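Per reviewer request, we include the raw input and output of the structure prediction for the construct analysed in the revised manuscript.
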Amino acid sequence: MARQPSLDSERPIMAQSVGPPPFSSPPTLPIGPFTFALEPHKSNLLQNRNSKRFSAVSGSPSLAASDRTNSTLPSGDPRIADIFQLHDGFERLENKPLNKQRFVPTEEKSNNLNKLALGAKVERALGRRMTSQDAVMRKPLSEKTETRTDSP
């Protein structure tokens, strides 16, 4: 019984490249404060760029398009329709009059609230520790009362 070679081993690992593909940025869709890319970036897109934007954090060039926003997906793609449907649903859920009334604390106010919350956490933690101890809580003795009783 002869062993037959696997079909996977006969396939080429990578197809021969004809040339660099034309540059086009992946379509993005803003949903609320977020932006979703509809297609992952390709690593060889950087070769076709005339201008490069650099990241403020890493200093490496960005692959995002700065001057072109052509879509690489066909307009009738069901994935795009699903995302637009989700976007419309999120827009309907957002209540704009209530967003205008939303409380946004100032930096000073948020710092004060954070300090109060931290104090409450510490107080609760100390309370839990002290109740599990065998210590007996007594009123502290004052030195003034001791000196008065000692003098004749």
